[in-house]
Amino acid sequence: DDTLHPPSSSSSSGSSSSSSPLPFLSPSSIPPKSCLLPQVNPDAVTARFGQDWLSLMIDQQALTRAATVLKDVLNTGTRAIVQYGLQKGEIKEASELVISNQTFADAWNSLDEHSQNVLTRSSAHIQQFATSQLSSIHANYIDNNGCLAGHTVSAVDRVGIIVEGYPSSSTNKTPHDSSSSNNNQSSSSSGTSSAFLSVLNLAVTAKTAGVNKVYLLHPHPDKMVLAACHVSGVELVVCCGGAHGVAALAYGIKGILPPCQAVVGTTNEKVVTAAKMIVGCQMQTDGATAPRELCILADHFADPALLAADFIAEASSHVDCNLTLVTTDKRIAAEVQAELYRSLRQELSLEDHYHHDSSSSSSSSSSSSTWCYNVSHVLQKGCTVICDSIHDAANVVNTIAPQQLSIHAQTALQLFQSKTFKNYGVLYIGQHVAPWQSSMYGPCSSFPTLGAGRARSAASVLTFLQIRHWIHIASGSSGATQARLLLESAVEVANLTDNQAQQRAARLRLPASPKGMGEIQQLA
What we know:
globular, 18 helices, six-stranded mixed sheet, alpha/beta, single chain, six-stranded parallel sheet, 524 residues
């Protein structure tokens, strides 16, 4: 069997397993190159990506479970939240449910200068983008001869952000990557997940939009996550996940956390997606989310080694992500597969060295096996689509509507400017943009998945804003004239619907004018 299956210890919750260590894998265990991002026919893309995506995000069992948990929290409050947290092993006692901002400051102060600079620079980039985006959205009105109509723009007061709760680990690194042992890199952030970037991305954007209070839902916050909360102005962390975590944000925790007006953030748990859909009837949410997606469109101009590196970077960080290569060049497709194969083989060759070196610890070998299992699994369930032209490739991409679209083409900028690609969550133009660092560039990292890019936008400043409309008829002759015209039209509409109550309400608003009353009586 050439297929490498992921180890049983890998799970969507990121929790560790007590199962026995993975067996040693030799370089010959790697699946054939053709199995890594295997080729599919363009005609099959519609069938592959046109399935019932809703069932992948949510099902009846998840909806029932979410509704039960939400009702339980609504009826019994904090006690239910604590009980669910204890059952899931997120907390050991009730006092661990919430972490205050004083702890955030302690976490920040414990970081070395390098880690603090990373957080500060990332926060500045995100804030700069959010500020620019906010400046394009402003209050407005029109004056139609004394009749004014317009809208106001204001931020919601309280926001809850959800960040996936993977505990810190080093499994997202290439086990034998020499850069991981760089002495200039402090160990304080070694093995830290990228959750802190998601915290910065969502919280800084919300605060820039004008949100007063931001609360984080994260069951396993590490030092970098807590420091990111300090930098971005998060009020407190609720240390739980699941539907009960969504309930805590939606309904509040008595005396600690008031109900939020928006809940934003990505998750792969169906029950959390279901809970967000339910509470979304009363507050703003960013819609259903699913495993991450990366689609790369490449022509003959692309660098196969760079494409393979981006795919492996995504696969090693998100073991359930979906990867797609769309290209107009068969050579590029073959060379990308070769690069993927070479990278996996090189990793296992290094493991072979460590495995036979009796002076080496077996932990490196086990880590390498886990990494290769996970990455190989993701690559095998991905696909490659070879198209005859850029036009055909664009049709494939628009059918997929990927969460992340990266263009490695000689005419990448022209393709963007011509609006060739219409359906995606975020677009990376050119080979200099690294998709796995998207959250550091400014745009929010909460992008629509599973084809939702056809209709939804990524989380942004707009997610945290409320647009409210208003109407006013000014006093004075011009206002009275316009009011008469509008009310005469209102009476006409009421007459068509035979609504006498609306007719009377319109007559009472007419300016005191014999001529106006005569016109109304004639209309009625």
